[in-house]
Amino acid sequence: MNPRINTVDFNERPFIAIWEVTQACDLACVHCRASAQPDRHPLELTTAEGKDLIGQIAQMQAPVFVLTGGDPIKRPDLFELIAHARSLGVRVSLTPSATPLLTREIVVCLKEAGLARLAVSLDGACAATHDAFRGMSGSFTRTMDAVRWANETGLPVQINTTFSRRNIGEIKAIVALMESLKITLWSVFFLVPTGRGKLDDLLNADDFEEVFSRLYSLSKSASFDIKTTEAQHYRRFLLQQRIAERKQGKEEVAAGKVADVIGRAPRGLNDGKGFVFISHTGEVFPSGFLPLTAGNIRQQSLAAIYRESELFRKLRDTSKLEGKCGACEFKEICGGSRSRAYALTGNPYGEEPCCAYIPKRYTPPAPAVRKASSLHVLQVA
Q1: Which residue spans within 114-179 are E strands per DSSP?
Q2: pTM of the model
Q3: Residue 363 has what pLDDT?
């Protein structure tokens, strides 16, 4: 386990740093926040700039560093970057796309370069659903192959699943599929309607609670850990369930988990608060789903942007939260998705649009006021 995880001051350094090494990708995923394209951008960070960024990550001592895309395998210097990170003591996770570029040989080379975890996506319990999600036939089979190859080479595996209207009907089968795989972490994403993600695919607040219930139930028996992305209110749900069980004397001891060398974040992580995203051109964002830039590492250091930019400082200040998030007694451990609030209202400090909980000291606005502030979606495509 990483000894630094419980000592991270979110005002000083992120727990998770994600570098989008490229937006190039051969898939056309229906929910892609980046609206990825087949070709690499000419202004991508160079190998030298990438190594400098990795050095900054090492200096900030961010416990989790993720190389994402697009498809990172599209970068010819990928193995060099991973090896460099490893030489500086930075544990690296990678999220490749399940295309013909992802071969057993590539998985072996990733392991040899020093990769700490391979994260692949499964968005359906069957090929038809997953491949439709990803816009390429054969993606489901390639993903399952990648999991098997990683298991064979001793490379820890993480599965990423994005829930939306397109696959919520398969949740029971998806859970069963996760239970059949040898993985260390199931990272469950909840759609943010940005990029190619559409408002019509967004789950409602009651749907979120249903997924939360299934995740909590699974967490008691699964051999792997479970985390959520852009569903910060799962922490509120967890706390409520544990308090209720404790009162009833039914609190259960979680099952033993597969060893995870990277570790988990302390409670309270949110967009810009323990989380930083660096784009393929060096732009720094609070999240890959919150398209508000705070600067560029070509002009400023990552530490300066993360610690001193007005955007990041405000996002870490829970007194800036509005609506029921601002009034919520769980705001210090939750805070709601700032990305989803922005996507649906244009206000990154607005209330989480997909949370069913009503805070104890909160009085909802009158219907006329709520109608006047109708939701809107900011979308690239």
Answers
A1: 117-121, 157-163
A2: 0.90
A3: 84
